Amino acid sequence: MGKKSRGYINKHKAAEGRRSTKYKIAADTVAKYREHKPIFGFGLYLSNCKGWTFECLRNSKEFVWIFNKFKAIAGMTWQQIVEASSMHAHDVKWTLETLPLMVRKLPEKWKNFPLFQFKVFQGCRLFGLFDQNNVFQVLFVDRDHRVNLQNR
Known about the structure:
There is one protein chain. The chain is of the alpha+beta class. 16% of the residues lie in helices and 16% in strands. It has one domain. It has a five-stranded mixed beta sheet. The two termini are 28 Å apart.
């Protein structure tokens, strides 16, 4: 079994019963969702997290910038988005200790899907996860890039 399988590291599958501190990290170099063009979903959007919603945008122009970014990337695959350095797009490699509380509170069934972020303008990032249909489920907005990322 020298070949890696497509999929994600499950935080519950640690060697010899030890608990892993890694959380939602793509197990292979190019995860399956990267082959697809963006499709966005908002079913998991954390609308009750003050300071991390679209309400944190300072004016309507910033909201327009986000939709212009959606339009600009619509014809790209996620791999192309990751390779575009201006997008600052990558899998998020949090540990259980540094994972924001609002994400830790997601239902258990979502905890095996990879977290991902990308820049929409200036310091503003969208964070979300890719579901089983490779739809990017937007979780929250980080207007000023405040989230503490580790192991980028």
